[in-house]
From TrEMBL:
Subcellular localization, as worded in the UniProt entry: Cytoplasm
Protein name: Phosphoheptose isomerase
Species of the source: Vogesella oryzagri
Domain SIS: 36-195
Pfam families: SIS_2 (PF13580)
Taxonomic classification: Bacteria, Pseudomonadati, Pseudomonadota, Betaproteobacteria, Neisseriales
Residues holding substrate: N51, G52, G53, E64, N92, D93, S118, T119, S120, S123, Q171
HAMAP family: GmhA
């Protein structure tokens, strides 16, 4: 067996153990779940954005809320900012940095929640979305991978999951956090599914 297989899994386990032993990060995950629940209880919506693998995570987050996670329940209003026609239009007319913020201007409002995903915590278009969301009165939950990042500092809640030297470890932790957030929403809004 190639040695990198065990080394990779061991590194991933170490990253998860580090998250488990980080009370600040665990408290942020709890607070983020509460923010989502509060928004839904008040008839608000949830949006998500990110680049590359983080866009895929943003899409996964939204479809698990609007579709189905573990059990049958009503659909929840959630959308990832990932429509190719919107992205190409805004990118062409206003620049790539505006692709997420422009979408929020069109569709979001005060009290809605933005899940802003950036492993570096410094993606310019995610940062622009965070700034726009704050100006609109949205609640911003950042999912980042570097402590003290600019996006994390601007967010209402920064769930920071450092995973090591590379972004893939961070993304592995991000998907775990995303699943916890979805389960937190379901447990609060549909407790009968977890009886």
């Amino acid at each position: 067996m190639k040695p990198h297989i065990v080394a990779t899994l061991t590194e991933a386990r170490s990253a998860l153990d580090a998250l488990l032993s980080n009370p600040q990060a665990l408290a942020a995950i709890d607070a983020a779940g509460d923010a989502l629940v509060t928004a839904y209880q008040h008839g608000k919506r949830v949006f998500s954005c990110g680049n590359g693998g983080s866009m895929c995570d943003a899409m996964h987050f939204a479809e698990e809320l609007s579709g189905r996670y573990r059990n049958d329940r009503r659909a929840l209003p959630a959308a990832s900012i990932s429509d190719p026609s919107h992205i190409s239009c805004v990118g062409n007319d206003y620049g790539y940095e505006a692709i997420f913020s422009r979408y929020l201007e069109a569709h979001a409002g005060a009290g809605d929640v933005l899940l802003a995903i950036s492993t570096s915590g410094s993606s310019k278009n995610v940062l622009a979305a965070v700034k726009a969301a704050k100006e609109m009165g949205m609640v911003v939950v950042a999912l980042t991978g570097r402590p003290g990042s600019v996006i994390g500092q601007l967010a209402d809640i920064d769930v920071c999951t450092p995973g090591g030297q590379y972004a893939d470890r961070v993304q592995e932790l991000h998907i775990k956090v995303i699943h916890i957030l979805i389960e937190s929403v379901e447990r609060a809004l549909f407790p009968q599914n977890y009886a």
